[in-house]
Every structure is written in C-alpha cells, then in structure tokens.
C-alpha cells in the first residue's frame, strides 16, 4: 500500500510543478482558456497529492518532519492559487509565484532527504 501512495505522490509533485509554471505563463500571455484548463488539472493533482500525502503520513506514523513538509505543501498550494488567480485577473502575481517556487524547492529537498531534522 505504501508503494502506491509513494508513487502517486512523487508523480503528482512533478506534474504540479510543471502545470503551475505553464499555467502561470499562459495567464501572463493572456491565453485564459488554456490557462484555466491547466489550472483545473493542477487542482486535480493537488487533490491526488493531498490524499497520497496523508496516506504516507499515516504509514510514517505522523513523523514531525513529514507533518512540517505537509504544512509547507499546503502553504505552497495556497501561494500557487493566489499567484494564478492574481495573474488571471491581470494583477501582479509575481510575489506568489516566487514564494511558491521557493517553497516547492524546499519541500522537494525535504522529500528527497536533502533537508532533514
């Protein structure tokens, strides 16, 4: 069961990163329809990531590092949503974009064991 959660979680992280960057730049280029489609697919991968992450947390017996990683991931999703929403409305969403990318890198490094405590 753990391998199923791990594989879906790891794969969803890759798709989240790619779809976020593409959707952001589609909105910047005023291609709203394509950006909205990718934004909705991104939300689907958020759900997959949350469900598989909770499954892995249960398997890891709620280890503190992974709980913190999960909290950072939820904050990252919020920044991604904020950034895409602002960009879609024509506002400046660069701060949210940079924040989301920074947290994405930190969480990915935690997931691969580069950052641990």
Write the layout of secondary structure elements.
Layout: H1 2-28, H2 32-59, H3 64-88, H4 94-111
Helix pairs in contact: 1-2, 1-3, 2-3, 3-4
Verbal overview:
The model has no long low-confidence stretch (mean pLDDT 95). Helix 1 runs antiparallel to helix 2, helix 1 packs parallel to helix 3 (64-88) and helix 2 (32-59) runs antiparallel to helix 3 (64-88). The chain has 117 residues and is mostly helical. The protein has helices at 2-28, 32-59, 64-88, 94-111. Helices cover 84% and strands 0% of the residues. The radius of gyration is 15 Å and the shape is elongated. It starts with a helix and ends in a 6-residue tail after the last helix.
Instruction: Note the total helix count.
Output: 4
Main sheet makeup = none
Roughly how many Å is the radius of gyration? 15 Å
Could you give the count of β-strands?
0
**What percentage of the residues does DSSP assign to strands (E)?**
under 5%
Task: Give the CA-CA distance, first to last residue.
Answer: 26 Å
Helix content: over 70%
The string of secondary-structure elements, in order, is: HHHH
Low-confidence stretches: none
The average pLDDT score comes to 95
- Give the assembly state of these chains: single chain
Specify the overall morphology.
Answer: elongated
Helix/sheet category: mainly alpha
List keywords for this structure.
117 residues, mainly alpha, 84% helix
Can I get a quick summary?
This protein is 84% helix and 0% strand.
């Amino acid at each position: 069961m753990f391998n199923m959660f791990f594989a879906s979680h790891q794969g969803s992280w890759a798709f989240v990163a790619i779809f976020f960057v593409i959707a952001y730049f589609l909105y910047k280029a005023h291609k709203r329809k394509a950006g909205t489609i990718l934004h909705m697919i991104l939300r689907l991968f958020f759900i997959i990531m949350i469900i598989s992450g909770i499954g892995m947390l249960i398997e890891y017996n709620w280890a503190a590092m992974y709980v913190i990683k999960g909290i950072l991931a939820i904050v990252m999703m919020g920044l991604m949503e904020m950034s895409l929403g602002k960009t879609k409305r024509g506002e400046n969403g660069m701060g949210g974009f940079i924040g989301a990318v920074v947290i994405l890198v930190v969480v990915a490094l935690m997931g691969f064991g580069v950052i641990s405590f």
